[in-house]
């Protein structure tokens, strides 16, 4: 699942121009604290902000709230050019440092290619970035930022508006009265109270819709493979499987992003599994529904009604059977269109764009980070160590204990200002989060992701005497207030503790709990606690050998001879369940754990 440590953090494809402007001045997020155990005179900062010769130019290609425009104008030349054709956009873009769009502009590869390297940031004044080619942006060293929170309530309110309008035929009845008719029998609706609403995608918008639907007396269930069950439980919503959600719901409301996995997630096959007479609401993205299949399901009576704000092609063709269907209520992608939300997203995106142009990292950045090559070159082995320690530590946590508080200690002979730990912290965060979620963490979004998940990471430096040639002596990761799958990983002070060093360019695990070990963090690891007695290494070694599992490294740490010992074994292959069971069955082994790093 998780990409290797050298993936997105180490190999951004960035042109020199964007590196110099974006790599400096990266502020610490408020969810982190740093403690220095010993003070030293600060050395000169490593990075300086690169000043711009002239004001940058920001192209605003879709209508943006005034407050956002004002923020932009304080810092840049702002060109508001709406309704540009793709060709006009490509022509203009070579003169722009930033581009701001909503959902109506396709920022495809051609746009980045046409920019000739000048475009440094694309700001999406909203959530969905499916209209921006992120891969192309990253390849061209262009940061993409969005405004992920300011339109949440507006979208949720629109979802509820569609739900209630559909149930009571408001749009159809309104048109009928205006056409001079009075059809009270034709527009008998359905009640919402007691009905089951399935919220598909329990993120920001989905959970707000759920909260509001509960207020309407609906029974709300949700499907979201990545949402934490406790967040759903907290508002009285049960997380269920996709099939259960669609089979039991009277109303289905879609709130997931458009991705290759969610594309046409409602299709002939899934409509066939729904309750007859189900009603569908979509304020997410048109592409999550196979629109032809929806028309068939409406005609077959499987779907009684649909209320749609978004379409596969926007605007949809006038003669679209779906749009014209009398049991379908439509709006022209209005989910985010309230005065309040538009002012909010305008400010959110303008701040992020200005920050990026000044060389700051935006918390709402959605693509690859910009990291100076010389910093990465020096930190590279420690970056790998940092991610592996994070991965190891989180896998030592027993199921059910939520990870909330992590302390990272860096021991170094460098003065604090001469050691930038943001990359290391991002990698530890990546290591901590990726094994237990589907979130993709990189330098840009690590702090933001940790904060969103309620994960607090505090940093501490131990300043060592000695040569500051190497940036770091060791890194320690401690997770507080959790149980461990491997009790020996708990230190005297009660936290899961792992410590590692870089030896000959290779990351090594050098401490687990109170036990000193020494095993390279290259393949996978078996940690065993046993009674310290002769023959143990041989016994475990021969169980692994019988199964052709190659041992790369082995080390034993103990309190005192013939007392307790912890054995750390590096293995090249993943041992089978049977082999692991055989290790567990060795009488002197008191506990063991297998961990993929
Ligand atoms: N109509 C409009 O004007 C607006 C539309 N939107 C759209 O609403 C959607 C949700 O936005 P937010 O809640 O802000 O995003 P979010 O990222 O907070 O929530 C999306 C949720 O979908 C879940 N998800 C991902 N894959 C899934 C799958 N296969 N099945 C079920 N759940 C899955 C994620 O885990 C996440 O919890 C996006 O598509 C966004 O573009 C958002 C604002 C306005
Ligand atoms: O934020 C989103 O994802 C939206 O769909 C809103 O789109 P808009 O900015 O109104 O074009």
Automatic annotation (TrEMBL):
Subcellular localization: Plastid, Chloroplast
Classification via PROSITE patterns: ACT, D_2_HYDROXYACID_DH_1, D_2_HYDROXYACID_DH_2, D_2_HYDROXYACID_DH_3
Gene3D superfamilies: 3.30.70.260, D-3-phosphoglycerate dehydrogenase, domain 3, NAD(P)-binding Rossmann-like Domain
Species per Swiss-Prot/TrEMBL record: Liquidambar formosana
Family recorded in the similarity comment: Belongs to the D-isomer specific 2-hydroxyacid dehydrogenase family.
A single GO molecular function term of this UniProt record: phosphoglycerate dehydrogenase activity
Pathway: Amino-acid biosynthesis; L-serine biosynthesis; L-serine from 3-phospho-D-glycerate: step 1/3
Record-listed E.C. numbers: 1.1.1.95
Pfam families for the chain: 2-Hacid_dh, 2-Hacid_dh_C, ACT, PGDH_inter
GO CC terms: chloroplast stroma
Name of the protein this chain belongs to: D-3-phosphoglycerate dehydrogenase
SMART domains: AdoHcyase_NAD
Keywords: Amino-acid biosynthesis, Chloroplast, NAD, Oxidoreductase, Plastid, Serine biosynthesis, Transit peptide
GO biological process: L-serine biosynthetic process
Catalytic activities: (2R)-3-phosphoglycerate + NAD(+) = 3-phosphooxypyruvate + NADH + H(+)
Location of the ACT domain: 525-597
């Amino acid at each position: 699942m998780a990409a290797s440590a050298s993936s997105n953090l180490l190999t951004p494809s960035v042109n020199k121009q964007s590196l110099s402007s974006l790599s400096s001045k990266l502020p610490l997020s408020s969810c982190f604290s740093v403690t220095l155990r010993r003070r030293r005179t600060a050395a000169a900062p490593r990075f300086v902000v690169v000043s711009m010769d002239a004001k940058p130019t920001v192209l605003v290609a879709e209508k943006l709230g005034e407050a956002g425009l004002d923020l932009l104008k304080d810092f840049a030349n702002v060109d508001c050019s709406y309704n540009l054709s793709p060709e006009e956009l490509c022509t203009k873009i070579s003169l722009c440092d930033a581009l701001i769009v909503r959902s109506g502009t396709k920022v495809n590869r051609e746009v980045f290619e046409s920019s000739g390297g000048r475009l440094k940031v694309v700001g999406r004044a909203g959530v969905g970035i499916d209209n921006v080619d992120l891969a192309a942006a990253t390849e061209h060293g262009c940061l993409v930022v969005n405004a992920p929170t300011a339109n949440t309530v507006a979208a949720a309110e629109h979802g509820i508006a569609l739900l209630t309008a559909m149930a009571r035929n408001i749009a159809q009845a309104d048109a009928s009265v205006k056409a001079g008719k009075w059809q009270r029998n034709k527009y008998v609706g359905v009640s919402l109270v007691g009905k089951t609403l399935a919220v598909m995608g329990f993120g920001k918008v989905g959970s707000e819709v759920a909260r509001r639907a509960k207020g309407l007396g609906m029974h709300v269930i949700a499907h979201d493979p990545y949402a934490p069950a406790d967040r759903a439980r907290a508002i009285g919503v049960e997380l269920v499987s996709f099939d259960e959600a669609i089979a039991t719901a009277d109303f289905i409301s879609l709130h997931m992003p458009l991705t290759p996995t969610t594309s046409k997630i409602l299709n002939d096959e899934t409509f066939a599994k729904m309750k007859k007479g189900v009603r569908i609401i979509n304020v997410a993205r048109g592409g999550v529904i196979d629109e032809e299949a929806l028309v068939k399901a409406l005609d077959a009576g499987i779907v009684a009604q649909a209320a749609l704000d978004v379409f596969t092609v926007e605007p949809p063709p006038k003669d679209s059977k779906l749009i014209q269907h009398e049991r379908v209520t439509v709006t022209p992608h209005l989910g985010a269109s309230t005065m309040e939300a538009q002012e909010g997203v305008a400010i959110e995106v303008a701040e992020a764009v200005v920050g990026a142009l000044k060389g700051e990292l935006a918390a709402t950045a959605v693509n690859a980070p910009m990291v100076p090559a010389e910093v990465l070159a020096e930190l590279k082995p420690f970056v790998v160590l940092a991610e592996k320690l994070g991965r190891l530590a989180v896998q030592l946590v027993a199921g059910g204990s939520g990870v909330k508080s992590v302390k990272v200690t860096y021991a170094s002979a460098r003065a604090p200002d001469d050691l930038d730990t943001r990359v290391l912290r991002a990698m530890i965060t990546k290591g901590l989060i990726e094994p237990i979620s589907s979130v993709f963490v990189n330098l840009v979004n690590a702090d933001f992701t940790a904060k969103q998940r309620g994960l607090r990471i505090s940093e501490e430096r131990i300043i060592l005497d000695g040569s500051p040639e190497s940036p770091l002596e060791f890194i320690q990761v401690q997770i507080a207030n959790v149980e461990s799958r491997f009790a020996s990983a708990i230190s005297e002070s009660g936290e899961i503790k792992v410590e590692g060093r870089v030896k000959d360019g290779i990351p090594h695990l050098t401490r687990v709990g109170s036990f000193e070990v020494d095993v390279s963090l290259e393949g996978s690891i078996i940690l065993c606690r046993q009674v310290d007695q002769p023959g143990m290494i041989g016994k475990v070694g021969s169980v692994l050998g019988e199964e052709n599992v190659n041992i790369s490294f082995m080390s034993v740490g103990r309190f005192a001879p013939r007392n307790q010992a912890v054995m750390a074994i590096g293995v090249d292959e993943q041992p089978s369940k049977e082999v692991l069971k055989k290790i567990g069955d060795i009488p002197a082994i008191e506990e063991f754990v297998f961990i993929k790093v």
